[in-house]
Write a structure and sequence with these properties.
Length: 791
C-alpha cells in the first residue's frame, strides 16, 4: 500500500508540462466609459495587471483554463480557456452576478485561499438530478460518504465527511443555518428536490472559515440558491426508475421585467417505494423567488419548503436477516389478536417545513458593499408509531377494570411531535481592492420549540380523549455571533489570511422528555474561534498553503439528556499543495484534527433511530487527501480523489465485563481509513456525455471499542451517468435526456449500521458483555431516467 501511494504521489508531483504563452487583451468600461486602474488578474497565478487610461489591459499566460478577476469596486469573474490569443471586453456596470454571489461570499472561499474545499456547480448537479438527495449527489467529492435509510437515495439520507457525521457538518442556505438547532442534524428529506433550485455548492473540509450556526467539526456546506436570470424560461422535468421512483418538476422564470425585477419558481413531487420493504417516500416541495436590481442595489426574497411523508426504515436489520432477507423492515411490526404478524401501514414520519428569506445586498462604492439577511423558518410534524402492549400509565391512561381484571397494558398508536420557530438576522460588510479583501459580520438567531406526545388510538382507552398529551417539553436557543476575516496580498506570491469569530450561545429547556424525564437546562457558552493561514504562489503552476483553525461548540439536546454538558474543542491544521498544468489540476492536502471531548457516535441508536453520542476524551484525525481534474485528451477526462486517514481515540475507556477498562488507542467509529472516488468522463461533443462513477469506502468500525461485531465491510460501487441535449428541438429550446444506472455490478453492500453492547449475568452469575449490530442494506443495480423540456 505504501509503495502504491508513493508511486501515485510521484506521478502527481513529477508531472511536467511545457506550453506556449498566449495573449489575453481587452477593454474595461462602465456603461461604455473606459475605466483606468482596474485590477485584472488570473486566479491562483501571479499573472496580473491594471488597465491604462483608455481602459485597455493585456496579459500573457500559458495555455490552460483560467478564472480572470476584474476588481474596481465591483468584482467580476470570467472563466476562459486559453488555447490561442483571446479578446475579452468587460462592462463593470453589469454587477448582477457579483451582487448575487455576495449572499454567501462571507462564508465561502476563493480558489487561492488556504482553506481546503471543493466546489459543485449547477451543471454538475443537473447531470445527475433525478430525484436523489443532495448527500447522494455529493458522494463523488473527497472524504465524503453518503448513506440512505431506504437504500436508493430517496427519503432519509445523510452525509459524513472525514468520518464526521451529519450533525457535525455545518450547512447554510444563502448564509442561513439549516442544521436543526437542538439536534444539530440536517434533514434533507424536509427539502425534497432542493438541488433543482441550487446554483452552486461549496464543501469546506475541516474547520473552514467562519460560518453561521453550530461550529463545523468535520466540514461546512454552503449552498447558494438559483441565480437571477434575465431571460424568460420554463422547464418541465420528469424522471422514472427502479422501485417505482418518479420525480416531477415544473419551473418557470419571467426574465427581466422593467429592467429591474425577476420572478421564478418551482413545484416538485418525488415518490418512491424504496428498496427496503415499505420504505416509501411521498415528498412535495416548492420554491419561489423574486429579485430587484437597480444599480448597486440587489434584493432577493425567497419562500421555499417541503412536506415529507416517509415510512420509517431507521431500525435496520441484524446480520442473520441480512443474509436471508436483505429488504426486511421491522418498523411497524406487531402481532394481532390471532397471533399473526402484521405491519402497521402508517408508521410514518410526517413533517412540514417552510422557509422565508430576505437578502439585501448594497454596493456602496467601488470598494465597499453590505449584505442584510432576514430569515423565518416554521417547522411542524410528527412520527407515528404502533406500540404493542404499551404501558397505559406511561401514556397517562388510567388502568381499566374489565370482568374483574385490571388492564394496565394496551396496543395503541401514538404521535411524537416537534413544532418549532427559527428567526435569524444576519449582516455583513465587505471591503475589497487589489490587495485586501475584508469581511465582518454580525449574526443573531432565536429558536423555540415544543416537544409533545399524543395518543390517537388505544385498544383500551379508559376515560382518555384522542390527542391527549402524555408528555410536554420546551426548548429555547439564542445565539449571537460576531466575526471578522481578511485576506491580504503582500506581493505577487504571498498572501495571508486571518479570521476571528466569537459565538455566544444560551440554551434552555423545561418540561419532560419523550422518556418522561424532567429536563431542566439553562446553560451559556462563550466561544472564541481564531483561524489563520498563508498562501505562497511558487510559480504560475504551483501553490502552497497552510492554515490553522479552532472550533468549539455546545452539546445538543440529547447530550444533555445523557448528562453531557461539556463543549467539544477542535484544533485543525491543514497543509496543502495545488498544481495546475495546462487543462489539469491536482490538489493535495494533509490534515491533522485534534479534539478534546469529541462527541463520537457510540454506534447505538435511541428510540427514534438517532445516533447516540459519547465523549471520547482526547482523539485525533490524521489524513491525506488528493483530488485531481485531468483532461486526458479531447474526448476523455477524469476526476479522481483519494483519502487515506488514521482516526483514533486516545486512552479510550469503556465498561466491559462489569468493569471500566482502558482500551488505549482505538478507532473512532464510522471513520474508514480509505475513501476513494473517480469520474471517468467521455465527452465527444458539448451535447453528449457519459460519466463512469466509481466509489470505494474501506472497512470501518461502528463502535469505539474495536469489536469485530461492529465491523462494517468495505464496498466498491460503480454508476453510469449519460446526458444528451437535443438543442433547438421542435417547440423547445432544448430537450435533455438523462440516464443513471446505479451499482452497475449489483454489489451487495451496507453503507451504514449501528452497534450496541451491554453487560449481562451469565448462568454462572458472572458479568459478561453482550454485543450486537444492525445494518442498512443498499440497493443492487437500479436505474433512473429522465427528460427535461426547456422552453
Amino acid at each position: 500500500m505504501k509503495t502504491k501511494l508513493f508511486l501515485l504521489c510521484a506521478i502527481f508531483f513529477g508531472w511536467q508540462s511545457f506550453s506556449q504563452d498566449y495573449r489575453i487583451e481587452g477593454k474595461v468600461t462602465n456603461q461604455g466609459n473606459p475605466l483606468s486602474d482596474v485590477s485584472v488578474y488570473a486566479k491562483s497565478t501571479n499573472f496580473g495587471t491594471v488597465t491604462d487610461t483608455k481602459g485597455n489591459y493585456q496579459l500573457k499566460v500559458p495555455q490552460g483554463n483560467y478564472t480572470l478577476v476584474f476588481i474596481f469596486g465591483n468584482r467580476r469573474e470570467f472563466k476562459i480557456e486559453v488555447d490561442g490569443d483571446k479578446t475579452l471586453d468587460v462592462d463593470m456596470s453589469k454587477v448582477e452576478e457579483a451582487l448575487d454571489e455576495v449572499l454567501v461570499e462571507a462564508f465561502r472561499v476563493s480558489a487561492d485561499l488556504p482553506i481546503t474545499h471543493s466546489n459543485f456547480s449547477k451543471a454538475e448537479i443537473e447531470e445527475r438530478n433525478l430525484g436523489q438527495d443532495i448527500p447522494v449527489l455529493l458522494n463523488v467529492l473527497p472524504s465524503v460518504v453518503s448513506t440512505t435509510d431506504a437504500g436508493n437515495g430517496v427519503g432519509y439520507t445523510s452525509i459524513r465527511v472525514r468520518g464526521s457525521d451529519a450533525s457535525r457538518v455545518n450547512v447554510t442556505l444563502n448564509g442561513i443555518p439549516y442544521n436543526d438547532q437542538e439536534s444539530q442534524g440536517t434533514f434533507w428529506v424536509n427539502l425534497p428536490d432542493f438541488a433543482s433550485s441550487t446554483e452552486s455548492l461549496q464543501l469546506q473540509r475541516g474547520v473552514g472559515t467562519s460560518t453561521n450556526g453550530s461550529g463545523a467539526f468535520g466540514a461546512s456546506l454552503n449552498i447558494l440558491t438559483e441565480a437571477k436570470n434575465d431571460e424568460p424560461s420554463a422547464e418541465l422535468s420528469n424522471s422514472f426508475g427502479s422501485f417505482n421512483t418518479r420525480k416531477h418538476t415544473v419551473e418557470f422564470g419571467t426574465g427581466l421585467l422593467e429592467d429591474k425585477f425577476t420572478f421564478s419558481g418551482r413545484l416538485s413531487q418525488i415518490k418512491s417505494d424504496g428498496y427496503i420493504d415499505r420504505a416509501f417516500s411521498d415528498l412535495k416541495s416548492y420554491f419561489l423567488q423574486g429579485t430587484f436590481q437597480d444599480g448597486g442595489t440587489f434584493i432577493k426574497a425567497l419562500a421555499f419548503g417541503g412536506n415529507n411523508i416517509t415510512y420509517q426504515a431507521w431500525n435496520g436489520i441484524d446480520r442473520e436477516t441480512l443474509e436471508t432477507d436483505r429488504t426486511f423492515n421491522p418498523s411497524g411490526q406487531y402481532t394481532d389478536e390471532n397471533g399473526q404478524t402484521q405491519f402497521y401501514d402508517n408508521e410514518v414520519d410526517n413533517y412540514k417545513q417552510d422557509h422565508y428569506q430576505l437578502h439585501w445586498n448594497q454596493r456602496l462604492n467601488q470598494n465597499w458593499s453590505t449584505n442584510l439577511s432576514l430569515n423565518y423558518t416554521y417547522g411542524r410534524g410528527y412520527f407515528e408509531q404502533y406500540e404493542e402492549d404499551a404501558d397505559l400509565g406511561f401514556h397517562e391512561i388510567s388502568p381499566i377494570e374489565i370482568g374483574g381484571e385490571t388492564i394496565e397494558e394496551s396496543d395503541l398508536i401514538r404521535r411524537r411531535w416537534l413544532d418549532n420557530d427559527y428567526y435569524v438576522v444576519n449582516g455583513t460588510v465587505n471591503y475589497s481592492d487589489s490587495q485586501l479583501d475584508f469581511t465582518s459580520g454580525l449574526f443573531y438567531s432565536y429558536y423555540t420549540n415544543d416537544h409533545f406526545g399524543e395518543v390517537i388510538w388505544s385498544r383500551f382507552a379508559g376515560n382518555s380523549e384522542i390527542r391527549d398529551n402524555y408528555y410536554f417539553g420546551t426548548g429555547t436557543k439564542q445565539e449571537f455571533t460576531v466575526f471578522s476575516k481578511a485576506t491580504w496580498k503582500l506581493d505577487d506570491q504571498l498572501s495571508v489570511f486571518g479570521d476571528l469569530q466569537g459565538r455566544f450561545v444560551n440554551y434552555e429547556t423545561s418540561g419532560l422528555t419523550s422518556d418522561k424525564v424532567n429536563l431542566l437546562v439553562d446553560e451559556n457558552f462563550n466561544f472564541f474561534n481564531p483561524k489563520a493561514g498563508i498562501t505562497y504562489q511558487i510559480n504560475n503552476a504551483q501553490q502552497l498553503y497552510g492554515s490553522y483553525g479552532k472550533a468549539q461548540r455546545e452539546p445538543r439536546r440529547r447530550d444533555f439528556e445523557n448528562g453531557i454538558t461539556n463543549p467539544e474543542i477542535l484544533d485543525d491544521f491543514e497543509l496543502g499543495h495545488r498544481l495546475k498544468l495546462g487543462n489539469s489540476t491536482i490538489n493535495t492536502n494533509v490534515y491533522y484534527m485534534y479534539y478534546n471531548d469529541q462527541m463520537v457516535l457510540t454506534g447505538a441508536l435511541d428510540d427514534v433511530g438517532a445516533p447516540i453520542r459519547e465523549t471520547s476524551g482526547e482523539s485525533y484525525r490524521l489524513g491525506l487527501e488528493i483530488d485531481a481534474d485531468i483532461k486526458i485528451n479531447s474526448l476523455f477526462s477524469t476526476r479522481p480523489n483519494l483519502t487515506l486517514s488514521r482516526n483514533k481515540n486516545i486512552d479510550f475507556r469503556a465498561n466491559l465485563d462489569g468493569e471500566i477498562q482502558n482500551l488505549g488507542e482505538t478507532n473512532i467509529s464510522f471513520s474508514p481509513e480509505i475513501i476513494a472516488a473517480n469520474q471517468l468522463i467521455f465527452h465527444p461533443s458539448e451535447v453528449f456525455q457519459v460519466n463512469w462513477i466509481s466509489k470505494y469506502v474501506g472497512e470501518q468500525y461502528m463502535g469505539n471499542i474495536d469489536s469485530e461485531v461492529s465491523l462494517l465491510d468495505s464496498f466498491f460501487t460503480n454508476d453510469i451517468n449519460v446526458v444528451y441535449e437535443w438543442k433547438n428541438a421542435p417547440l423547445f429550446k432544448s430537450v435533455v435526456f438523462t440516464g443513471l444506472i446505479n451499482n452497475v455490478f449489483d454489489v451487495k453492500y451496507e453503507s451504514n449500521g449501528y452497534f450496541f453492547f451491554f453487560d449481562s449475568q451469565n448462568d454462572q452469575g458472572q458479568t459478561e458483555t453482550i454485543e450486537g449490530a444492525g445494518f442498512y442494506p443498499q440497493a443492487g443495480i437500479n436505474f433512473l431516467a429522465g427528460v427535461t423540456l426547456k422552453f
